[in-house]
Every structure is written in C-alpha cells, then in structure tokens.
Design a protein that fits this description.
Elements (H helix, E strand, L loop, with lengths): L2 H12 L1 H17 L14 H10 L10 E5 L7 H7 L3 E5 L3 H14 L5 E4 L12 E4 L5 H8 L8 E6 L3 H8 L3 E9 L7 E10 L1
Parallel strand pairs: 1-2, 1-4, 2-3, 4-5
Antiparallel strand pairs: 5-7, 6-7
Helix pairs in contact: 1-2, 1-3, 2-5
C-alpha cells in the first residue's frame, strides 16, 4: 500500500476531513521524533501505511463503543488514531514520562482530549475495566495477559497486532490461558497478523 493509497483508504472509510485531522497527528509525530525516538526513522516516509492505516484497521475488529485500553502507546499508535476515528473512550498507558507528556499535548492538538485518558504508568498499576485492549510491539502474548489480567473481564476483546510469530505466540499462551483465539492477516503487511482473543482467563 503506497502512501497515497493509505490516505485514500482513510478517506474512503472516514472522509477527507479525517485525512486532514490525521495529517496534524503525522506532523506532530514527525516534529517530536527529532527530540525523542517515537518511531523507527525508516518508517517515517511510510507513516500513513505503517502506522496510520496499520492502527485504523483495528477498528474493523472491535465493538463500536466501549473503553479501549492501549498499552505502551508510544507515539500514539494505535491508541490516538483509534480515538480520532472511532467512538470509544481511549486510555493510553505509557510508562515513559516524555512520551506520556507528548501524548497529552497531542490529544489537545488533534482535538480529542475529552475522549482520551493518558496514564504515565505501567499497565500493572492501572485500575479500570477495559472493554477492548490493544498493545502494539510491546511484549509477548503471554506477558500481556499476565500484566493486564486485572483490567480485563471474560468479555474483554483483545486486539493485538503481531508479526510473523502470532501463531507461535497463541500456541505458547494457550499453555497458561483459556480463551477463544483467532488470527487475521494485516492489510498493511501480508507477513504481519492480528491476534483476536476473548474469554481470556488463567488456567
């Protein structure tokens, strides 16, 4: 998917205004990346495909509303994109203070501050009940379940972008966790996958 195709994908689904608003996010990420390592520099030229659409596609696998918890939000992918395009309240959990400060400023800049809750902490110390949980390039499936079990219920929907290791991670996690697991291919990279899980409880 080229950058123009990625912008077209967003425009077709969410309108031209969404592309304009997301362009503000892209500009802020690019400016802040000079000061801190928000995303891999090699992905800056393909940010619409590698980060914007890669985040937005997760909405296709989620209920329409609810409290969405994004673990290790970093530059705002996927959590800030989800807050801008969806109808969810989004909690962004980011333990690094500089990045958490950036996320709070970014929420103001893109106009979603009322629907975004930035927490500068590790997820293990967060107190809430999430309807949906996302984590992108944070940890193994087994560790994510262990760290986040206290904020999930059996009804929580887990939507977890992964690389080629997705099937192996599911097999490993099943040794310690019950649940319904399904894997979808990412639309931005045929080698990447998205793990969908529900009913997750410890064995």
């Amino acid at each position: 998917m080229t950058e123009d195709e990625a912008k077209g994908w967003i425009a077709d689904r969410y309108g031209a205004a969404a592309v304009d608003r997301l362009s503000i996010l892209v500009a802020h990420v690019a400016a802040e990346a000079v000061r801190q390592n928000l995303i891999a520099p090699s992905t800056m030229e393909t940010i619409w495909n590698r980060h914007i659409v890669d985040s937005a596609q997760l909405l296709d696998h989620a209920p329409r509303t609810g409290l969405w918890l994004d673990i290790g939000s970093g530059a705002g992918f996927p959590g800030m994109v989800l807050a801008m395009l969806g109808e969810h309240t989004v909690c962004l959990v980011e333990p690094r203070r500089r990045r958490a400060t950036f996320l709070s400023e970014l929420a103001d800049a893109v106009g979603v501050h009322a629907g975004v809750d930035v927490r500068c902490s590790r997820v293990e110390t967060v107190t809430l009940q999430a309807d949906i949980i996302t984590a992108r390039a944070v940890a193994s499936l087994d560790n994510l379940f262990a760290w986040s079990a206290h904020v999930a219920t059996p009804e929580t929907r887990w939507i977890l972008p992964k690389g080629k290791s997705a099937l192996e991670e599911v097999a490993s996690a099943k040794k310690a966790w019950h649940g319904v697991f399904h894997v979808e291919h990412s639309i931005t990279d045929p080698a990447s996958m998205i793990i969908l899980a529900s009913g997750v409880t410890r064995r």
